Amino acid sequence: FGIGTTSPASKLHIRTASNGASTVGSASDELILENSADCGLTIRSGSSDDGVISFADADDHNIGQIYYSHNTNDMTFRTNDSITMTLDDGGNVGIGTQNPTSVLHVSSTPASGYPLAEISNTSNTTATSYGLSVQGGGNSSGAGYQFQTKDMSGNVDFFIRGDGKVGIGTT
């Protein structure tokens, strides 16, 4: 069925203006929205309700979802029927937590022998590339950014102050 076109390239093809494409991907050809300039899709729901995009298969009607809650102004991503990532109304991202308390909050119980997070530098030019770089307003009094590791009880194991001083078992 075509709206704005007499030769639809999918089951539903809505065209404002041709963008010049002549082929359609077979994995995403049930709905086409086409324009020669900006093109978009709007999901409207109640002011205290959710807007949802669901991904389903024969066994599960919502195995994956993208939710936007107008009540809390949060966006959540679900994979395998579980919330895996949240973007809250303050811009905080939570991976493994629905209530992030910092700009990036990662929470998980990794499989035995695996780290919670891994950063790999695959560059052969190590002099000009970094695996992890932390920059901030450190000063000679130790104020500013800090890097620390803590045990499960919250005790500091390793600490680097903003002035570069290192503490092991102390701040």
Largest sheet, in brief, is:
6 strands, mixed
Order of helices and strands: EEEEEEEEEEEE
- Name the strands of the widest sheet in spatial order: 4-5-6-7-8-9
Overall strand count: 12
| Share of residues in helices | under 10%
Q: What count of helical segments does DSSP give?
A: 0
Gyration radius, rounded: 24 Å
Measured distance between first and last alpha carbons: 67 Å
User: What share of residues are in beta strands?
Assistant: 25-35%
Please mark out the parts with pLDDT under 50 across 5 or more consecutive residues, or reply none: none
Average predicted local confidence, pLDDT? 83
**What best-fitting shape do the alpha-carbon axes yield?**
elongated
- Alpha-beta classification: mainly beta
Give a verbal description of the structure.
The structure is a single chain. This protein has 171 residues and is an all-beta fold. It has no helices and twelve strands. The strands form three sheets. A six-stranded mixed sheet has the order 4-5-6-7-8-9, with no helix packed on it. A hairpin with an 8-residue loop joins strand 4 and strand 5. The mean pLDDT is 83.
